[in-house]
Amino acid sequence: MSVWLGPILQESAKLLQNDGEMESGLKVLWITPLRALAGDTVNALQTSAEQLGVPWRVQLRTSDVGSSAKAKQRKDIPDTLVTTPESLTILLTYEDFRSRLTSLRCVVVDEWHELLGTKRGVQTELALARLRKFCPELRVWGISATLGNLEQALATLVGPERSRDAVIVQGDTKKETEIASLLPAQIERFPWAGHSGGTMVGEVVGMIDQAKNTLVFTNTRSQTEVWYQAILKTRPDWAGMLAIHHGSLDTSVRQWVEERLRAGDLKAVVCTSSLDLGVDYPLVEQVLQVGSPKGIARLVQRAGRSGHRPGVPSRLTFVPTHALELVELAAARRAMHRRQIEARLPENKPLDVLVQHAVTCGIEGSYRSEELLAEVRDTTAFESLTDAEWEWVLKFCKEGGESLHAYPEFHRLQHIDDQYCVTDKRTVRQHRMSIGTITSDAEVQVQYLKGSKLGSVEETFAARLKPGDRFLLAGKLLELVRVRDNTAYVKKARGNPTAVPRWMGGRMPLSSELSAAMREELAAAARGEYREAEMEAVKPLLVLQQKWSRLPSEKQLLVEQLEFKKRHLLLFYPMEGRLVHEGLAALLALRLSRIKPITFSIAINDYGLLLESVEVAPLEELKTAELFSIENLESDIGESLNSTEMAKRHFREIARISGMIHSGFPGRSKTMRYLQASSNLFYDVFAQFEPDSLLLQQSRREALEKQLEWKRLMATMQRLESLECLVERPKKPTPLAFPLIVERMRERLSSETLADRVLKMQQQLEIAAAH
DNA sequence: TATTCCCCGCCAGGGT
After folding, report:
1. Contact A706, A537 (CB under 8 A)
2. Closest nucleotide to A747's CA, by C1' atom?
3. Which of A49, A58, A147, A234 could cysteine-pair with A80, CB 3.0–4.6 Å?
């Protein structure tokens, strides 16, 4: 970070000097998406200012700043303010803030790639449009990691009007990134399926031992807990030098880990992407990645945690958890060298965020409809907002729309003398408390009886625990004593855990770019070209796939049909990530069952999908074109999946952001059940009284896009339609089929029985392969 | 809703 701040501050100081006499007041506003980054940014900016001889006061404004300090700050404003999008929006609700902005010359948005493509990004766009209106001469700078769509990122940051005159400045030092893999000694003995990577613990411990310090990235929070225990079991002498870091640990625990890491006295930290960003650790020598990186950008980002200095290469070692992940890695490396980094696509017209903004602006002062509309259209997100949509938004803020007008608490905006404003004190207070676009599931805090906090688990997990049950959190074995007031009180325990908490995170699919690169790598293997070390390692398995079935070229789609344990299996391998496969599986099952009434069971992973049935599926009777036709796609999806239920669940987010439901005070959230129940109620009321409500429409659209990757599904179907369909009838489950069959079994078996069964199946297959 | 499944944010005003 310090690499960047110097020149940026110098530039801004120069520009300000050119503007003539320096006024007192706020000059630079620095927006960062991360609170953890804000404190360091303040220090770095203050140091740079002193070195440059610019007598500027730099201050922090986030939730970490106490309310009295915040109140003082509003009267005696510093020269530079470092803040988050949420805190900035709250500032924009104060009527005195506008008058303090006359001296503002420059806004810097740090880590813009993190905000772009999210509703937080849209919130930032709207805030920037306000600031530009208050200070027309404002300069806007963004700092971003490499992205597949930098031009679009720029346009979104500065707004449609100015994007032609805006410029992209790239660093001239090329960062070297080296990616290697821990290759299993014998690929035949290496798991064909699974995800934990347990077989690699020994090798990982060896790697950690050789380096001064290591970050071990895993894909899930529960995986960090399991890996932490596994490493410690192998090397008990590392107790105290090994730490754990993920998003469900208490801030105090995380800060302690970050400080120890910075001081350089930790051997290793097992973490999730909670350490992707944030504080810079020049001391990190080695980065390991356990399991699929899912995308090229993520891989590069994580590698970048090591060698965080100019001129020093970043290095990452990949630890596969099953054989096909080696293909992923080989593909990711080649894509990285071609600079094929994923794009982050900006959100388009999320009206829930606009509803929130319209109320925010009405608190700051009063406005005329056309006036705010023009300002809002000055963002890329709402550039194409129609008059009718805007009228609907205002009406919704004014009287809760068609459905809620009987309830005075939804009459948030008043319309007086052609001006809109908020007058009710309670509305103001409630609105400030619920500003922001991040919605999360209700969690139960976990703390010792003595009082120190450890972190949180999901409500559903806590509900299943009985006093005396033991579970892992923050690398410790804990025993539940009691649950009270949304807090689980625990004490240290001995023995083995009875449960490992699982958190429902997002279901990250393999990115389109990585999927495409993977298909290309497999196609090369089909031609006999094994171009990377990982591909050489996995070669025996791919040769087996070819022998028992086929490896498809990029112009072919492989379909396998086989009988297994008296069931008929139909397997497709589009390699498009799990979300697309989920929609596709439901759709194919529906279209096949129209020809012949069959019930299918479905399994999916990032590589393909499985349809299982008692009777054989009528595959020959459908042409590829009919199977993958995008005609009637929407109604077929609606019929095959419960898309109303999907939209209903998603509506909770929209109801929260648009201010229909409130989650209570920070840290004292109402329970999930309550929130889901009230958002369901709102959904039903809307569906009955205002079925064409724009927020309902948004909910349907977003549910499809976020839970099924709708656009990608359409593109996939068009791609599949044009491919040659290869139908193979292997006698045994092939290496590609195997993980899907395991996935299918998972639903019926406990995890231990499953592990045994997988081992047995694989051994049988190995014997078959030997012959 | 499901279970392998990242991360990120957060009031105000008056009292001591």
Report:
1. no
2. B3
3. A58
